[in-house]
Amino acid sequence: MSTPERHKPFLLLSIRGEDAAADDEYQAMRRFAGLDESGMRRIRLTHTELGDIDFDDWSGVILGGGPYNVSDPPESKSPTQRRVESELLSLVGRAVEEDFPFLGCCYGVGVLGSVIGAAVDRSHPEPVAAVTVTLTAEGLKEPLFADLPEVFDAFGGHKEAASALPSNAVRLASSPGCPIQAFRVGENCYATQFHPELDVDGVCTRIDVYKHYGYFAPESAESLKRDARQHHIEYPPTILRRFVERYMRRR
Q1: E strand residue ranges, 57-106
Q2: Hey, how many other C-beta atoms are within 10 angstroms of the C-beta on 108?
Q3: Which domain holds residue 163?
Q4: How many domains does one find in the chain?
């Protein structure tokens, strides 16, 4: 009898202190990636320190989104945010140096962008809503975007974004309100401004959790959820699946 094939897990790093949003994110990441809890482990950085991460133990690293902004004034950041960002910048810096598989979702643009010297600021915020994403010529060639149309809808919502990239980064996608919706550094480090893990139920959960976090007027929460339900978000989860398929490594 053959032994079942075993693969190294993926590591999800979460910056969501709110249980409802953090758990929904973890479940969605696993579901769309096609992984169970053994295939995707999670560290909630708001609850525990990152510790030593040996890339040899993992197939890849995924960073989820959340209420942090790397461009916030340092004096406005909580001690937890400062600790988390210090840990993440160090880890992602190593990932870039080693070209280790990394996918940053939303907040990942700020972290990966800061590591490589991109301009990360509040020039191109987008409301919590469906956005129209257009792949660049380079994006159309990317393995992570295989089988995606040139133009597709995705859920987003952010205060900061990358407004300019250094020459060693490749812009992969844009939207009408945000010129850098996705980019790549090296061969294996990616970031998307939109959320590849979000479907309608997920974005409605986020709207409920974060309605007092300054993304939108709290009284507009129900109308935002109604608008979200009018969209069929089909393609973004494919990016998670492609990331896992491309980088899954045998033990």
Answers
A1: 60-63, 102-105
A2: 24
A3: 10-247
A4: 1
């990331």: which residue's tokens?
A: 243
**What CATH number is given to the structural domain containing 34?**
3.40.50.880
User: How far is residue 178's CA from residue 157's CA, in Å, rounded to a whole number?
Assistant: 11
How far is residue 21's CA from residue 16's CA, in Å, rounded to a whole number?
Answer: 7
pTM: 0.95
**Which residues have C-beta within 8 Å of that of residue 224, sequence separation ≥ 6?**
127, 128, 129, 207, 216
3-state secondary structure of 96: helix
Is 237 part of any domain? yes
In a domain, 206, yes or no: yes
Residue carrying the six token digits 């579901």: 31
User: Is 182 a domain residue?
Assistant: yes
pLDDT tens readout for residues 58-112? 999 999 999 999 999 999 999 999 999 999 999 999 999 999 999 999 999 999 9
Does some domain include residue 172?
yes
